[in-house]
Amino acid sequence: MRLTFLGTGTSVGVPTIGCRCKVCTSQDPYDKRLRASALFEDGDTRILIDCGPDFRQQMLRQEFKKIDAVLLTHVHYDHVGGLDDLRPFCAFGKIDIYADLATSERLRHSIPYCFGAHKYPGVPNIRLNVVVPHQSFSIKGTDVVPVQVMHDKLPILGYRIGNLMYITDMKTIPNGELKYFKGVKVLVVNALRFSPEHHSHLTVAQAVSFARNVCAEHTFFTHMGHDIGLHNEVNRTLPDDIKLAYDGQVIEFD
Q1: Residue of 12, 3, 55, 6 whose CA lies nearest to 193
Q2: pTM for this predicted structure
């Protein structure tokens, strides 16, 4: 199994338009972050996690192969804004989209041309599947378990795939959810910045604390803003088992 970080940035990406800070002007490719998304692969199974507005740019760097499914965490634009760009991948057949009820209903309003009874030629050939927390489903024999976290007051989904747990845009987690993290070896979780505290995202200290509660063997931070600091400098301050992810990073696990 492997996970490729397609993007590790926050909603505005890094560099941030108009900013001249040391991160936004850095020439280190590790400091350039597209909107958060990841690609899980196991054999010939390929699962995309979130499909933001940078999806086209991200996939130009990947081999052009079938995408079996897309897992959506929530409906915010930086996580769904690239769904129309799935069109080329529909040459391999219909793509299943998995999302909670609220996200599914909003997508039907925001991109209705994808779901009408009489679709015009060329629209993405996608099918919405509504999922609920804790009820597992299978994608080509790969089991996926949605979990619920809170993005401020908005319930959103994280996904467990085998020993991987992928969480983004979390601020808090409801009581009882941590039992679904048991045995996780690889944790991906959002860490916006060191300070100040944010109303809907974890800070680095909060993400480190959460990682310690999960007890994963390896934790990777994603959905990071420019104000988190320079990639290499920050990673030197973090524990050996907790690191900032970077765009294009590939991790392999059992």
Answers
A1: 12
A2: 0.97
